[in-house]
Amino acid sequence: MTHNPDHLRPATARTPRLAKLAGILGAAALITGCATVQSPNPNDPWESYNRSMFAFNDAVDKALLKPIATGYDQLMPDPVQSCVHNIFNNLGDAWSAINSFFQGRGHDFANSLGRVLFNSTVGLGGCIDIASRHGSQRIPNDFGVTLGVWGVGSGPYFVLPFMGASSLRDSTAFVGTLAANISPLSPVLHMTDHPERNALLGLYIIDTRANLLDADRLVDDVALDRYSFIRDAYIQRRKALVEGRGNNYSMPDYANNETLPDYSDDEPADKPAASSGN
User: Fold this and answer.
1) Confidence (pLDDT) at 158
2) Which one in 8, 10, 246, 260 has a CA-CA gap of 20 to 30 Å to 130?
3) Is residue 248 within 8 Å of 121, Cβ to Cβ?
4) Cα separations in angstroms, 114 against 69, 97, 101, 145, 264
5) DSSP per residue over the chain, as a string?
6) CB < 8 Å & 24+ apart, contacts of 143-146
7) Of 123, 124, 118, which Cα lies nearest the Cα of 94?
8) What is the pTM for the complete model shown?
9) What's the pLDDT tens digit per position in 52-109?
10) Are 70 and 213 in contact (CB under 8 A)?
11) Where do the domains of the chain lie?
């Protein structure tokens, strides 16, 4: 009597691909322990480690994430991609609102919260970004920026495994909020249906990478050194975010409707102006 090995074939078929990926990751990990920089940038004292981890992340990206994201971008209809991206952005807006509140940015808090409420209802659960169409633009915010507004220095530039560019402050904020399960993905992470939860997390990763494809091509075209270009762009952007959020701490008077975002329909262009009373 012979046993049918068909039930073993799916795992066997995946073996070459997994072996290839494991080889790439192993080589990248080996590189991580070998590269050294004799004169690191003053803003990047951990440059030896960072460049090695950057090479590791780049190897993972080229072997796995970028091909999947490229296929997703090419095969998925644009309206579906836009809907998926808007829903995840809607979750991010809720997190931005919380951080704006902690930073004392009352107008930003009202704007972000209004975006969430408006897009979650009129925008079909966030699928359609109605708020942006009515002039309420997204305000990117996170706990790393909040710590910066509170006076915590950025610390050295730091490349996180798999996640990429960060700083000591921002990576601490990211890991801390993730461990406390308070982040833009908290609603997904709290799901009890694990297969559905994991599918949504995978979709979030693919959507995020797909939306970076154009930026990736731009870096390849203009940057002589991809690592330095990404590092400097990250440091400058985070500095601008902290400095921009660090001003105007006074909470606005919410009794004054002028401080609240306007989500009403635009008035017709031919509507006569109100009389000035002259």
Assistant:
1) 97
2) 246
3) no
4) 31, 9, 13, 21, 12
5) ----GGGGHHHHHHHHHHHHHHHHHHHHHHHHTT---SS--TT-TTHHHHHHHHHHHHHHIIIIIHHHHHHHHHHS-HHHHHHHHHHHHHHHHHHHHHHHHHTT-HHHHHHHHHHHHHHHHTTTTTTS-HHHHTT-------HHHHHHHTT----SEEEETTTEEEEHHHHHHHHHHHHTT-STTHHHHT-S-HHHHHHHHHHHHHHHHHTTHHHHHHHHHH-SSHHHHHHHHHHHHHHHHHHHHTS--SPP-TTSGGGS---SPPPPTTSPPPP---
6) 143/99, 143/173, 143/174, 143/176, 143/177, 144/169, 144/170, 144/173, 144/174, 144/238, 145/99, 145/103, 145/238, 145/241, 145/242, 145/245, 146/99, 146/102, 146/103, 146/173, 146/245
7) 118
8) 0.75
9) 999 999 999 999 999 999 999 999 999 999 999 999 999 999 999 999 999 999 999 9
10) yes
11) 77-259
Query: Tokens representing 272?
Result: 């006569």
Q: Sign of dihedral through CA atoms 50, 53, 57, 59?
A: positive
How far apart (Å, rounded) are the C-alpha atoms in residues 70 and 234? 24
User: 186 is written with which tokens?
Assistant: 């908290």
| Average of per-residue pLDDT across 106-129 | 96
Angle at 210 between CA 190 and CA 78, to 5 degrees: 95
78 token code pair: 């644009």
Question: Furthest-apart CA pair in the chain: how many Å?
Answer: 103
120: left (phi over 0), alpha (psi -120 to 50) or beta: alpha
